[in-house]
Design goal:
Blueprint lengths: L1 H4 L3 E4 L6 E2 L2 E2 L3 H10 L3 E6 L6 H10 L9 E3 H12 L4 E4 L2 H9 L4 E2 L8 E4 L7 H11 L4 E4 L5 E4 L2 E4 L1 H12 L4 E2 L6 H10 L6 E5 L2 H11 L2 E5 L6 H6 L6 E3 L2 H8 L1
Parallel strand pairs: 1-4, 1-13, 4-5, 6-7, 6-8, 8-9, 9-12, 13-14, 14-15
Antiparallel strand pairs: 2-3, 10-11
């Protein structure tokens, strides 16, 4: 575990990793305090595109954790970077009002009604889902325009179980149209790479912690950094053993991880 003791940048998933709904897991606050004491940095890294960073700042504040916008990297960040790079004229955004607002704030031309000049469909985690959106997405995909998704998560964990996430909606659209999106969030490496670029820490100094093999762990491995699976959320030891992209380490939860490295 000596390699873990030398880590300085901790990229932390949130849902299922440090909390579940409104319940902060034991040991999280001392863990974050110890990172600061050793001169390190933590960044919260989430695929959830349904709400803005402001809502996470408020939630963390309720937990007694003070954060700023600089403490987060989200799938919306990397989605906006990609969409801007591609130079689309008009993007149909299948997602929440918050998702659309965040993309507009990044200077992108966003809409949520059909028109002939739409050249990209962008799907996120939509807690405001309607059948009209599904129908219009199918119409657009029939036009062979570009198609991207903020992330591939099949479910979002809650205190009572799970609800369908962005990946499940994309599966519905695939069943109807035969088209799959370009995925931009975890498991792709863009988010940890962006975090390292923002903070200046190297790959050797960085570690990703998360509860999902196919998103959190995979993105760390693809970014070339160590990845720790915590068993407080979706992933299990059996998942880790079966996975193609295996975690570097497996811990029961953040508290056990913290006890081992501080």
């Amino acid at each position: 575990m000596e390699g873990l003791k030398n880590k300085k940048l901790f990229l932390l998933d949130m849902d299922g990793t440090i909390y579940l709904d409104n319940n902060l897991f034991p040991g999280v606050i001392p863990f974050l305090e110890n990172i600061k004491k050793k001169g390190g940095r933590y960044i919260f890294m989430t695929n959830n595109s349904s709400k803005g960073v402001e809502s996470y700042i408020e939630k963390m504040n309720r937990f007694g954790i003070a954060t700023t916008k600089e403490d987060y990297v989200t799938s919306v960040n990397v989605t906006a970077i990609h969409l801007e790079k591609m130079g689309y004229k008009k993007i149909y955004v299948f997602g929440t009002e918050s998702f659309k607002t965040q993309l507009r704030s990044a200077g992108l031309s966003v809409c949520d009604t059909l028109s002939d000049d739409i050249d990209c469909l962008c799907v996120g985690f939509d807690t405001e889902l309607t059948f009209r959106k599904l129908e219009e997405a199918c119409i657009l995909l029939g036009r062979d325009i570009d198609y991207v998704a903020s992330h591939p998560d099949l479910v979002c964990p809650t205190a009572y179980g799970s609800v369908p996430d962005c990946g499940s909606v994309c599966d519905m659209l695939y069943n109807a149209t035969g088209r799959r999106p370009l995925v931009l969030g975890k498991p792709e490496p863009a988010m940890p790479l962006l975090a390292m670029e923002k903070t200046g820490f190297s790959k050797e100094q960085t570690v990703v912690l998360g509860d999902r093999i196919y998103t959190d762990i995979a993105c760390g491995i693809r970014a070339g950094v160590d990845a720790v699976l915590v068993l407080s959320g979706e992933g299990t030891r059996e998942d880790a053993e079966r996975a193609t992209e295996k975690p570097t380490y497996v811990y029961e939860d953040i508290r056990h991880f913290s006890e081992d490295i501080f």
